[in-house]
Amino acid sequence: MKEWYDAIQKAQSVESLEEIRISVFGKKGVLAQEFAKMKTAPNENKAQIAKDLNTHKSALMNEFTAKKITLQTIELQIAMKAEAIDVSLFSAKSQSGALHPVMETMDKIVEYFSSMNFSVKTGGMVEDDFHNFEALNLPKYHPARDMQDTFYFKDEMLLRTHTSPVQIRTMLSTKPPIRMIAPGAVFRRDYDLTHTPMFHQVEGLLVDEKGKVSFANLKFILEDFLKYMFGDIEVRFRPSFFPFTEPSAEVDISCVFCEGNGCRVCSKTGWLEVLGCGIVDPNVFNAVKYENVSGYAFGLGVERFAMLIHQIGDLRSLFEGDIKLLEQFQ
Ligand code: DAH
User: Fold this and answer.
1) Nearest 5°: phi and psi at 264?
2) Which of 39, 62, 218, 327 gets the most CB atoms within 10 Å of its CB?
C-alpha cells in the first residue's frame, strides 16, 4: 500500500492524480482487488484484514483529497498568471458604430406614425404580379407600368417595386378600419446619381367608413408629419397621377438647402418633391372586395428624406459603407 501513498504525494497534475484515483479506488482498482482476496483468507483473519483495508481506504482518500486541492490551486495560479491582463496598458482604438442614416430616418418616420396610432406592417420583398400591380389598378399593358422597371422572376413573380403591395395584403387579411404604414426595401432596375437598384420606402394607408376620410385629413397629417421631419418648412400639394389613387398629389417642401430662394439642388424652383399621395382609387377597393369605405394613401422614399435631412449630395454614398461618412452620424 505504501507505494500508493507515495504515488499520490508525487502526482504532478490533477490529471495524473485522477489516473491514480482510478487505479486505487476504481472498480478494478487495488482496493477492490484486496477486498476480493479477503474471500479466500482464513476466516479468523478476515475481520482484521477488513479493518486494515478500511483504514487504508479512508487514509488514502484523505491524502487524495488534500493533494487534489493543492494541485488545483497551483494549476489555477499558473492559468491566471498566463491570462493576466495588464489594465495599465493603453487599449487599441475601438471604432463604435452608429445607426445608418437611412435606418435612423426610417425609425423617425415610424415613430411619428406610431404616435398617430398607425400600426407597422412589412410584407415580403418577393411579390407576385397581382399584389404589386394588378390589384393596385395597374392591369397588364397599362401604360403606367412603364413607370417602374421591374426585376422579374419566373411565373409572374418579381421583386416588389414599391411598398404599395403591403396595402393590398393588409386589406385582404384584415377588416376595415385600417391605419397602417409599411416601411421596407424595394427594387428597381435603375442606377445613377439619384437611383439605386435597392432603396427604401414607407407606405401609408388609412381606410374607414365611406365619407369619413377626406383629402383634408390627408393634407393635415402629411403637413404635420413633414414639419416633424424637416422642422420649419413650407408644404405644398401639386395635382399628379397615380393609378392607385384618385385624386392624386405630389407633395413638395420648401428647399432645405436654400430655404426656398432657389439653388442647384431644387433646380432654382425653391421646392423639393418628397412624397406621393391621394385618395384610394375605387378600383383598389374593388380588387380587395371592400365596400362602403373611403381612404387615403401615401408613399415616400426614405433615402431621399435622409439625404435632405443630412444634406448628403450623392445617393450612392449611402450604400458604400464608407466609415468616414458613417462616423459623422454617431
Ligand atoms: N408607390 C408609389 C411609388 O413607388 C408611391 C406612392 C404614391 C404610394 C402615391 C402611394 C400613393 O400610396 O398614394 O412611386
Assistant:
1) -65, -40
2) 218
